Amino acid sequence: MTDGTLILAVLLIPLVGAGLMAFVGRRPNVRDGLMLVVASIEFLTVIELARRFATTGLDPVTWARVAPGLTIGFSAEPLGLLFALIASGLWIVTGAYGIGYMRGHQEKDQTRFFACFALAISFAVGIALSANLFTLFIFYEALTLSTYPLVTHHRDAKARAGGRVYLGVLMSTSIGLFLLGIVWTYSITGTLEFSPGGILAGNCDGRTAGILLALFAFGTGKAALMPFHRWLPAAMVAPTPVSALLHAVAVVKAGVFTVLKIAVYIFGIDFLRETGSSQWLTYVAGFTIIAASIVALSKNNLKARLAYSTISQLAYIVLAAALATPAAILGGGMHIAMHAFGKITLFFCAGAIYVTAHKTEISDMRGLGRQMPITMTAFLIGALSIIGLPPLGGSWSKWFLMLGAADADQWLFVGVFMVSSLLNIAYLMPIAIRGFFPGDGSSRPAVKEGPWFCVVPLSLTALGSLVLFFYADELYRWLLPLVSS
């Protein structure tokens, strides 16, 4: 199989799967089994793509030439392949979880849900493998449109209102800011190709680069950088598997992946550091990290608290891009993976609690750990990974992020990361403590876990947070070409 055929297969497998799921939608067991098979095939195909890249390399593929220096094309590099592996791999567990959740909660329109989910995975992988900004923008917009039906799944007034905010913020920022940045970059350089070391050095001064960076950072609304973050809490009206998709599998990761990739392959970290054009962004990201964590402390609804936690954690990666040191870039890339496993575990647990105990408010979850010990233990593991405690994966990404800030002599942001970790403890640990130590002398309730299609995936992702701690060196070496080329 040629490189072009393999890349085409990675993009088409989820699309074909979506069509097949729609075709057999009246037979739920066949549909759901098909979804798991297609997700597994997609993951194995991405693994083969990554294996071939690591051994022989992959040739870029051009599908169409729109204008001189403007093409629709695909190529592979370590950060993009990491994102593709995360999106396709977590599709399997999220799909299995979705079966348990959607059936356990007796949700309607399940065929539409799983078909749109497959479309979103295809577009996320398209973003990951884009060879240039033009291709990335096409798949970025397609991802927004394909996830809108998921956000508005319940089709009631609350869902429609959340969907309007979701679509309004993401489309207005991408068209009004991101697209403008793309056009401006093309007018300056005559190309939009991702290139090691960037394409802007020698083509613009530091002030122009700073303005372009603002267009890209705020135009990538999926990164949820304040003040363009409202879509993320608004989207929590969606079913919990969608929240998992938004926060860990595709959408927000597409946002921070885009910011990090643009910093490395359009600006170049040496150019950013030498011109100081990203200094302002460090303060915006730092403010987002702290402010979102403080807001999370005030939320009693579990999904709302986790949503603001995600806004804060995404800003870690934006800050990494703005610091523009090798350690920060590596830490940001690692955090994409570490946060994915930790946060998806927390959302899986929130959904299992809702399906089984019908609880959404943290204040009502006292003693829940005795009733749902597997679920709450997984929640504790995911929380500790987000906090950054060993032996869990989040500890390594936070280590490299702080090291990157120290390398840049930005000690203020070393402090930001440390304060953020303390705030992580403040808004996550009371949930686990409340669950395991009710403190009211109540008798131990009967154990009643959620559906096994929910419990097994959340257990696997919690285990993944642990495994990533011990395989962090392999992840580090995989991403090292980002800063050594």
Describe this structure in words.
The chain is mainly α. 75% of the residues lie in helices and 2% in strands. β1 and β2 form a beta hairpin. The longest helix is centred in the middle third of the chain and has 33 residues. It is globular. The model has no long low-confidence stretch (mean pLDDT 91).
Strand order of the largest sheet: 1-2
Q: Provide the gyration radius in Å.
A: 21 Å
Overall 3D shape: globular
Low-confidence stretches: none
Order of helices and strands: HHEEHHHHHHHHHHHHHHHHHHH
- Beta-strand percent range: under 5%
Mean pLDDT: 91
Helix content: over 70%
Biggest β-sheet: count, sense, barrel?
Answer: 2 strands, antiparallel
Topology, please?
Layout: H1 3-23, H2 28-55, E1 61-67, E2 70-74, H3 78-104, H4 110-129, H5 133-151, H6 157-189, H7 206-219, H8 231-234, H9 240-249, H10 251-267, H11 269-275, H12 279-298, H13 302-323, H14 326-357, H15 368-371, H16 373-387, H17 394-407, H18 411-436, H19 452-470, H20 472-479, H21 481-484
Antiparallel strand pairs: 1-2
TL;DR of this structure?
The protein has 485 residues and is mainly alpha-helical. 75% of the residues lie in helices and 2% in strands.
